Amino acid sequence: MAITHDVGDRLEELTSTAHRIREAIESVIEGKSDVVRLTLTVLLAEGHLLIEDVPGVGKTMLAKALARSIDCPVRRVQFTPDLLPSDITGVSAYNQQTREFEFKPGPVFANIVVGDEINRASPKTQSALLECMEEHQVTVDGRTYHLDAPFMVIATQNPIEMEGTYPLPEAQRDRFTARIAMGYPEASAELDMLDVHGAASPLDKLQPVATTAEVRELIDAVRAVYVAQPIKRYAIDLVTSTRHSPDLRLGASPRSTLHLVRAARAHAALAGRDYVIPDDLQDLAVPVLAHRLLPSVEAQGQRRMPEQVMADLVRMVPVPETQAGPRR
After folding, report:
1. pLDDT tens for each residue of 220-243
2. Which sign, positive or negative, has the C-alpha torsion 61, 156, 175, 242?
3. Closest to 46 (Cα-Cα) out of 174, 216, 211
4. Number of helices and strands (H, E) in the chain?
5. Is residue 255 within 8 Å of 170, Cβ to Cβ?
6. For 130-173, what is each residue's pLDDT tens digit?
7. Are the CB atoms for 65 and 156 separated by under 8 Å?
8. What pTM value is reported for the model?
9. Residues in a beta bridge with 275
10. Is 106 helix (H, G, I), strand (E, B) or coil?
11. How far apart are CA 120 and CA 147, in angstroms?
């Protein structure tokens, strides 16, 4: 399969633009380069990101930093128990002057939607995001409204405080391309944070370094990244292994295979390659697949988390011996 020369040129532009976005985010988020890279990977893979960690480690700060780095419409939703689905999607309101119902768009009509503490809303409200995350559209009162690209939902949740929360259902988790945990910073990074954040928030000084049009072009370039047949089969083997593992009572869905390959394309592009290699899939298998898995009773008894099971499966599944690059 031949790849046109302009793909390489577009990938050079991608890495340059992505580098600017990455530097902008890292000026706010100290010592988390891997987390920032995965966030960009999800953005370019046309996916959605779930950030799950304890309070105070910068979950919302990361989401805001990405949003402010791109010159595009951004809306933030604070999820609470009394939030209604119409508060997210929008509502049809009666106009006294025209004597007609007019649709008032909700916060979901933006390029980047930041959902803070998503598990504090009721399942009914959480379900308001299902259609827009999967189909990039919203249906209200029988009428469908399309969402502009790029469209990305960045949701945060706290896994520790369970009081007053509603765990995300499997259908909701499956629509998130990846889940990441911020983790505590290194001592040196925390010291830098005291210097940078001590007087004022660096978010106040953060300026956009990329436009919406540039992000769309980068996404188009990622779509052109080549994936060889053995690499596709390897992705399927990784996902299939979760469905037969005795440590899991729920394996990954076919949607997760698609998300894994899309993310691998973006991962390869950020590395300056126009083709996917097995390492791309291996690096992404845990963040892309683990949050979709449910451990068996035995695994829970042994305190084996889905992340551990997925990491073991990555080591067990045979790696294809093939030339991953495209034929020129």
Report:
1. 989 999 999 999 999 999 999 999
2. positive
3. 216
4. 14, 13
5. no
6. 889 999 999 888 889 999 989 999 998 887 766 667 888 888 89
7. no
8. 0.89
9. 226
10. coil
11. 25
